[in-house]
Structure to design on (399 residues):
């Protein structure tokens, strides 16, 4: 019996020891591995510095938040921007005698037309071949067929009567005949000062590429130089830069510009321009219309609409057609179509300094029955000159 009890006690002790070993091994497996030791990190080498930055940084005292003055939030801090400077207003040079000052710009027409005719007329014998050359010279200069025939006929008759021809006599003869051809007696004054009201209303029309908007800006300078106040109407709403361009021209001479939204109604802009011109007491309102192609019937009809809407205020005093002198006879086609839509009262010939076809002055006047009132002789701001027949002819034939 004692032996059995002893065996049972030994078995219980052995089982208890085994159970303790199993539990201890499980606890060891569940414990996380110890964290690895932090590696030694070597700081990267400092970038090289120059001058004051090359020295080692030093500890500097720093202010705490209690020492820093913070805004109390009672009123926002307003930063005043410097006022924009108004563009300096230019004073254009007087227009009287401007064509005389710009006469050298007609050198190409002078060589082709004036000097060419003088050379031919100075020949000892003026036979039929010479007269044909004279005709060709006039036609090449775009004088036109009928004016050329008239001029040659008068020259033949006067040369026959004159007999002996000295260079000075020939020059005087040619000058007189060319002035007659250009038209000395045509009224070339701009109708900008009606007697019964203010302002005078001027519409500027023409096709794309003739320099119409630029011409309108230069015309504003001409009027300001003659002592008139001007309002500009940017009724060319189809070309994005047209209104900006016109406004820039106006700011340079102190002229107010009325403009509307891009692609807006041009007639509305023109109407507002005249309205503001009245309120401001301006002398003249210049209306720049779209540079519409003369082949676009719908757009040409719209040009007529602009004129009708403006005339709800007052009659239009001037309708100036801008033509590119370098286009020659094609400009006559444009002139003819525009004259059917609006009553053209005057011609502005641009780029006359860049062509040998000075005879276009004669041809376009014959075509429309209206005078050339202004000519453009360069790209400068004051290169638009009132047309003077005598000065023009003198520039053609030289001194």
């Amino acid at each position: 019996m004692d032996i059995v009890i002893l065996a049972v006690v030994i078995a219980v002790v052995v089982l208890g020891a085994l159970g303790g070993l199993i539990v201890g091994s499980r606890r060891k497996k569940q414990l996380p591995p110890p964290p690895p030791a932090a590696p030694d990190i070597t700081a990267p080498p400092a970038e090289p510095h120059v001058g004051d930055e090359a020295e080692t940084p030093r500890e500097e005292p720093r202010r705490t938040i209690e020492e820093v003055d913070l805004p109390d939030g009672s009123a926002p801090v307003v930063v005043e921007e410097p006022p924009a400077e108004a563009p300096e207003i230019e004073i254009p040079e007087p227009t009287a005698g401007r064509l005389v000052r710009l006469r050298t710009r007609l050198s190409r027409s002078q060589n082709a037309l004036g000097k060419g005719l003088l050379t031919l007329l100075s020949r000892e014998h003026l036979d039929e071949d010479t007269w044909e050359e004279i005709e060709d010279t006039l036609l090449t200069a775009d004088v036109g067929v009928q004016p050329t025939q008239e001029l040659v006929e008068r020259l033949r008759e006067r040369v026959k009567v004159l007999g002996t021809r000295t260079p000075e006599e020939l020059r005087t003869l040619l000058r007189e005949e060319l002035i007659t051809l250009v038209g000395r007696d045509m009224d070339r004054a701009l109708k900008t000062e009606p007697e019964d009201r203010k302002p005078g209303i001027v519409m500027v029309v023409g096709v794309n590429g003739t320099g119409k908007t630029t011409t309108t800006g230069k015309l504003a300078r001409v009027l300001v130089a003659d002592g008139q106040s001007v309002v500009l109407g940017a009724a060319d709403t189809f070309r994005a830069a047209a209104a900006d361009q016109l406004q820039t021209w106006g700011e340079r001479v102190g002229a107010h510009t009325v403009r509307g939204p891009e692609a807006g109604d041009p007639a509305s802009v023109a109407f507002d321009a005249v309205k503001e011109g009245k309120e401001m007491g301006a002398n003249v309102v210049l209306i720049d219309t779209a540079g519409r192609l003369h082949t676009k019937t719908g757009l040409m009809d719209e040009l007529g609409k602009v004129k009708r809407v403006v005339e709800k205020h007052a009659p239009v005093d001037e309708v100036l057609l801008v033509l590119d002198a370098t286009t020659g006879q094609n400009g006559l086609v444009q002139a003819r179509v525009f004259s059917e839509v609006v009553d053209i009262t005057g011609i502005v010939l641009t780029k006359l300094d860049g062509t040998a076809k000075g005879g276009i002055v004669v041809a376009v006047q014959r075509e429309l029955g209206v005078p050339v009132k202004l000519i453009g002789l360069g790209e400068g701001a004051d290169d638009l000159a009132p047309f003077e027949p005598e000065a023009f002819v003198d520039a053609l034939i030289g001194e």
